[in-house]
Amino acid sequence: MSSSYHQPDAPNSPLDDSDSDLDLDIQELDPITTSAATGLSSSRKERKPQEERRTAHIPLRNLRMGGLRGLGKRSRGYGDLGRDRDGNNEDLYGLLSDEPGVDGANRYSAGSSNGGEDGAPLLAANGHRRRPSTDTFNKLGSHLRLPSFLSTTGSQAPPDDAEEQAEEHDPSSSRTVSVGASQTARFPPNAVSNAKYTPVSFLPVTLYNEFSFFFNMYFLLVALSQAIPPLRIGYLSTYIVPLVAVLAITLGKEAFDDIGRRRRDNEANSEGYTVLCFDGPGVGNAERYHAKKKLKLKQNAKSKRKTLVEPDRLSDIQEEDAAENRGTGLAQFPSTSVREVIRKSRDLKVGDVLKLGKDQRVPADVVILKSYTNESAPIAEENEAPIKSQSLLVEPISDPPVDSTAATVAEGHESTSKLGNTPSADAGGVGETFIRTDQLDGETDWKLRLGSPLTQSLEPSEFVRLRVVAGKPDKKVNEFVGTVDLLPVNRAGYDPYLPRPPRLSNEVNPEQPSSSTNSAPLTIDNTAWCNTVLASNATTLAVVVYTGSQTRSALSTSPSRSKTGLLEYEINSLTKILCALTATLSIVLVALEGFEKVEGKWYVKMTRFLVLFSTIVPISLRVNLDMGKTVYSWFIQRDTGMPGAVVRTSTIPEELGRIEYLLSDKTGTLTQNEMEMKKIHVGTVSYANEAMDEVASYIKQGFSVPVSTDASQSMLITPSSTFVASTTITATRTRREIGSRVRDVVLALAICHNVTPTAEEDNGQMVTSYQASSPDEIAIVKWTEAVNLRLTHRDRKGMTLHSVDTGRPVVRVHILEVFPFTSDGKRMGIIVQFLDGSETAGSVNIEAGEIWFYQKGADTVMGSIVAANDWLDEETANMAREGLRTLVVGRKRMSVQQYQEFAASYKEAAVSINGRDAGMARVVSHYLERDLELLGVTGVEDKLQRDVKPSLELLRNAGIKIWMLTGDKVETARCVAVSAKLVARGQYIHTIAKLKRKDNAQDHLDFLRGKKDSALLIDGESLALLLTHFRTEFIGLAVLLPAVIACRCSPTQKADIAILIREFTKKRICCIGDGGNDVSMIQAADVGVGIVGKEGRQASLAADFSITQFCHLTKLLVWHGRNSYKRSAKLAQFVIHRGLIISVCQTMYSIAIKFEPDGLYKDWLMVGYATVYTMAPVFSLVLDKDVDENLANLYPELYKELTSGSSLSYRTFFVWVFVSIYQGSMIQGLSQILTETSGPKMTAVSFTVLVLNELCMVAFEITTWHPVMIICLLGTLLVYLGSMPFLGGYFDLAFIITWGFVWRVLAIGAISLIPPYAGKLIRRAVKPPSYRKVQAI
């Protein structure tokens, strides 16, 4: 720092002793909480150089008065206390003229009337606005904050350190986000897109996909060959029009599906969110300056009014500050004014500050800045709301003497909701909010999220001073590393030298711009990722850091892919056989004539034959199949048995009939993610269902206070209260014992938890709701309320329980220590001191009440902690078999001495540097977790979706292997697998968890080889190890097991498993899920099914099929899937038959006319045969069904046989080929024998028989008649007969109306049809198909 800035004669100037004791002491005493006031008595000329090192200099006067002034000012936007002394309008204009174009001299001159010499050093230092020195600042990096005149204030002005931010364009580097301002780098838009195509890529991609199919390419070549004159046969349009029609239908369907996806994306992207906009001097808008001026004058008037509240307490502050503030023109109002606007989700940008409320979906990845209860002052009124808190804050609230330190006073204020500006989500902490992440990682537990202490205590109007540094976009949802920086105060509208309020010990002082304290770290606890949902009744302000494709959920999601059904590939391979047949026929016909005898070139003749026989590969096949898919999709969407079903990919409904593996998510798919307390066992008696009423009556008796009790006497109950027995004198001793046991266990459950009650207004009524990280705990606390003991208040110091019956408080405890639940410990404990009501509000004495340690946890860990007993293992096993999540509850009474010993040891362990966690666990184990009195066991049920059990059973019987992939905990997954009957009763579950070594992995694999009837439960860590080192062996074993449950799976792991099974088994797999964490898995599957979840539609939007309930899946597969596949298989083979038979007729004709490649049926006859005369009856096969829906559900084994692909196989295909060859040769051969070799008579007979033959074959194939089928058959027949008079160019019309024509047609038709039909009847009698057997039962 240049010495020219230093004024040697400045009073109390501490610049020269930066290493002084004061420096050290303040940092050591409270390294984070040091007050922002620095050297108020120093003259203004020292201020600028001090900005970089302000923390060190805190006069004792400020320590004495800082809290008083700070709390008042903080509550209404920075220092209203002395507002009345800033009424000088010239001072205000001096500030407000601070535009980028104004130089440093003008900037401060207006306010320097009382201190001409004060301005000189500022002018010297700032005359050129320090522009040349920005490089130096940049080099100094985080050690030095830029002064206010180099930083931004406005929402639109880019930061002056733009050079530093220019490199952020690279997504692989970390980013610096200017809060509430526009960014210098460009980030992706915040739009969700599940569309497969863009307007540019649509045609190239779809055409490529179409022509990658052999038969489309084949027809393209045939159509192109007709452009060459020597190869032309008949009309060019005969070949081109069908191809164009096929492509138009397919492309139209793809476009329709994709437009539907875009429309649904648009709905999600148009969701409105409240965004805070910051207007201030930095924008350079004159009107806003005047608005600011009015605001300040208004505030001044208010502050004059407010100062009357406590004039004696404020006068000394005003006197001390007056000399410094009177002449400076530095105003006391916030840096910016804040207004709220509603913005669509897609318009959100990095840096936007969102205002989110309860049950709102988070639209992008955000960092939480601040959170406050909904009773708090709204942001828009931040300058007016806290008027009344002035007196509260200046006159300290009567807190207990023990809590009178600055830190605990602040703590007390923030944990009770007395203050208008309390930052906590409710009781229990600074800026707490809970989020639900089940849409992101599948975990059911709510996650606690916090605002950074640096930003939590900041007014929203000061958010523009924040810079968030975040790492590069990453798919790891449980990791985040970043920092938040608070830049020095802006040049206008803020005075940093006023004292700030005292803060919590772990809080960073936000007003200290020195490099050591105005940065705070950010972790995963300060974030909320896209698609999570705010669960607590709090308003949360958060800044967007990642948008669109860079959010965690988008990075965990694989891009959409075009899915093609197995049937398409099978037909494609059959087409290749037909094409080979065509080529063989052409070569044979040319060879029979002799290559040397051929007029002209032999290959020209062969190509003409190829074109003639092109009907063998029927182009109408694609048209029929695609139209069939549309019909199946229509059936699915119109099914009243599964309302809300949507087909998003209409190209693969047949795939639903071929599923062999079902991969299901747990949370929200199999379960409702709603917990319910089902059972409680107290050692001798078990209560469930209706018996819970008995528990309620015990509690009613046990927690009622006798009327005779003196009003001055204790009105609160403790575990050892004795007078409660008087209400049950008439009861038997056993009943009294059970009553006291029930009372003890209910009291334990009502106290041992981390639940916070919140009051919400619902339809005009106040409703108490609960929030906690674990839904299990909420279920238990709701149950205690149902049995008459309600939790009404909780903060970090205590909780209160009321009797539901009387509405009076019956239990009040002081919380001494809480041991939260961890995945390793699997238990949570709490030490409480019961208050008996005799204490005064402010005198909680450690020796005044009973001290109890309560603990609840998993039976595996609690078994060794509780005292010896003979029923625990048996009862927990019984509950586990029912799929209930068990918790064992115990308690232990502690003497004051025992507690004090424990507290001392625990504190000692907590401050040790090495092995802290293990040391703390050891102390807890030694002092507390020994011989606990066993109170009872609870059973909580994770409510299953409707009809999940019968649905899973039916799917298993249908031959489908079911895997459950979840992001949730191992215990939770096991309970749900059992309760959902995914694992059969008594079936062994082999668990592989926390696998670290390869040799252990081999042991597990060897075990599974020998026990293939067991279910496998594996966690994500072990799965990753097995897939890395034993990929093939593991998947080879896993696919044979009846059920696999994988927990703690990341979204990417889910997708990897789906791809692995698909590639290894070559079977069709279906994935079903409801959350954003399931999207990758759904898109990786052959068939993706999305359930429309409570919290989002990401899964249903990305899926091929969307349903509203898991139980609808059975109908989708067993009924619609089966029908779609069987119908398409029959339709495909019939269309092939229709094309093949006409080619056989053409071959017979060519042989008869001496191997000439001349068309038998030309032009209209060819087009008419493929369309008008046969299409409707053949297509009506899509309405056929072999069994009704009840039978399909009753005998799911009918579905199992489809997986073998027997409906469309090489065997059935060749049967149809032989039938076609027989019928074609009979029709054409007999027509030529009975009429003439070539001519209109022969054409009339053979074409008529051909059409009638097809109509009769359709009738033979139909299993269940439908009115539409009859209409199609009779209608087509009438159309053909009606069109015959117009076919004079092809037929001999005179011959048609003779009996000779009629008997020939009937005779040839009978010879053609009777043998195939007879063969079908014989086969059905000898070996009836399954559906016939079922119908016969």
UniProtKB/TrEMBL annotation:
Offer an example of a GO molecular function term for this protein. Answer: ATP hydrolysis activity
Provide ranges: composition bias, Basic and acidic residues. Answer: 307-316
A Pfam family found in this protein is PhoLip_ATPase_C
Where does the record place Acidic residues bias?
16-28
Q: Catalytic positions?
A: D665
In this chain, composition skew of type Polar residues spans: 32-42, 173-182, 506-520
Compartment list: Endosome membrane; Membrane
The UniProt catalytic activity note for this protein reads: a 1,2-diacyl-sn-glycero-3-phosphoethanolamine(out) + ATP + H2O = a 1,2-diacyl-sn-glycero-3-phosphoethanolamine(in) + ADP + phosphate + H(+); ATP + H2O + phospholipidSide 1 = ADP + phosphate + phospholipidSide 2
Query: Which Gene Ontology terms of cellular component type are present?
Result: endosome membrane; plasma membrane; trans-Golgi network
Write down the EC number. Answer: 7.6.2.1
Residues annotated as signal peptide: none
The similarity comment for this entry is: Belongs to the cation transport ATPase (P-type) (TC 3.A.3) family. Type IV subfamily.
Q: What is this protein called?
A: Phospholipid-transporting ATPase
